[in-house]
Fold this protein.
Amino acid sequence: MLRMRLLGSFDLDAAPLARLGSKAQALLAFLASNRGRSVAREELAGLLWGERGEDLARHSLNQALTVMRAVLGPAAPQILRSEAETIRLVDDQLELDVASFEREARGMARASLERALQLYRGDFLVGLYVRAHAFEDWMLSERYRLSELAPTPSPDSSTCRATLTIPRRRSRRRAGCWR
């Protein structure tokens, strides 16, 4: 099972991130965010290398996939499925903090919201800079969407209670004092 964290800075368990360049990290993050869904090679090439010609973009995508396979090591065939026209990460081989965060942030129980707060280590893909406008647009929209889901504790000093506020839903939930 591959553990990947996209909230805060990019982190991949048991993999040397130094070998993954920023575009390979971006590719892995995009595939993980679309886990289980086959993504067209053309879409991926346009997302990260859209400023290049089609042949050069596809070549760059293939190079990034080669680096990803090397970094993932022997687990690569179970995690990364690459077909002639599509690529995907196998959902049941991936533990993704974003998926866990979304599930917990949508929960109604106080324990779920506290777990969501723990999972939210920071904005989506902080520190990942890629010179690709399409990817940057996608990343910023994901960053906004996820930050809107994040519960934030706001102390209510008059009752020694904290209110967990979910801004996007404009709802408030009561919880005990935060320590």
